[in-house]
Amino acid sequence: GGIGAVLDIYSRNIAPFNFVSTMAYRNKFYELFFFSGSVFRLLGKLISNRKIRIVHIHGAKDGSIVRKSIMCFIAKKLFGKKVVFHSHAGAFDEFYMKRGRWYKAMCRFLINNSEAVILLSDRWNDFFKKNFRVKRLIVVPNPVEQRVPMVVKQPLQKEVVFLFLGKIVDHKGIFDLTRLVVEEKQALRGRARFLVGGNHQVECLQAQIRDGGIEDLMQYIGWVKDEDKERFFHQCDYFVLPTYHEAMPMTILESLSFGKPVITTPVGSIPEVIVDGRNGYLFQPGDMEHLKKII
Fold it and tell me: Is 84:115 a contact under the CB 8 Å cutoff?
C-alpha cells in the first residue's frame, strides 16, 4: 500500500536501511504471529546496534496504532530512544473522534511520546495541536521518483484505458466503479477498458465482474509492483481512484510522475495536487452520475 510504496523509495535512497515490518496481510492468526516476530526483531536491532538514536515509526490508524504504540513503548520506555511518528492515515481525525477511550489513549501515548510528528499535509495541523501534546509538527509530502519516458506503441483506434491500483475494499470506491461499468457496459463496450490491481477483497471483485458480464471491459491484473506497475502506468490513459477517504495516495503521485491525468475525489490532501480540469478531474465520493459524465 501507500506506506509500503514510501518505504520502497526510502530503501533505494537510504543506506543502511534499518527497517522492521510489523504487518503481513494474511489471516489474523498469521498477522499476530508476524507482529510477535517484529517485536523481537526490533529488540534485536536496538540491542545489537548502539548507534541507533531515533526510531522512525510509520503508522495509519486502527490496528496500526495498536502495533505502533507497542513499538513506541519498546523504543522510548525500554531503550530511551527518540521516536518520530509519521502519520499516513486518511481521515485519521474522523476515525479518532469516533473511537473509544482505549483507542484514544493509545493514540495519545504514541503521539505525545514522539519528539516530532510528521504529517503529509498541513490540513491536519490544527487537529493534532488541539488533541495531543505535540512537541513538533513537520509536513513532509510523500516522495515520488522521477520516471524515464517510455515510448508505448498504441493502435490508432484504441479504447481509453483506465487504471485502478489500491486496496480492493469499499472505502476505495472500487465497487462503486465496478457497478457503474456494469450499468453502462453497452455504452462503454469497444470504447473503454478498466484495469484493476490490488489485494484484499479480490474474490468479491471477480464475482462482480463475472456476474455483471463485464469480463471484456474490466480485468483484474493482480497485485502489481516494480516493472509491472510501470508497464501498466505507461499503458493507461487515466488513473482512477474513486476513494472515500485518503491522506495523500502514493498512486496519485506516481500517476502524475508518469504524466497520467487522475480521476478522483477531493478528500484528504488530494486537492493540493489535483486541480480539476487541469491535471485531472474531481468528483464527490459516491457521486457515480458525475463520474459517469467524466468517463
Answer: yes
